[in-house]
Amino acid sequence: MSTRKSNPIIVTIDGWSSCGKSTLARQLARRLGYIYIDSGAMYRAITLFFLRNHVDWTDAEAVREALGRIELAFVWNTSTARMWNT
User: Fold this and answer.
1) pTM (2 d.p.)
2) What residue ranges in the chain does DSSP mark as E strands?
């Protein structure tokens, strides 16, 4: 796992649903020695939090308050060589 601190590079891949973005991103990160972060999983985790806590996403103040209560952390899983949000 690379720990590049100076001049960090962020690579983003855009495309349609189920077109292989995550597969490509994981392989590219592995080959370049970068850390792969599944931002889609992060968005799904926030959506799940909103659903479980009955947050009205059309109410800006409710969204702000809910976002202040969410804690996401990325943890490196050495057995799968993947980053997970917890």
Assistant:
1) 0.62
2) 74-77, 82-85
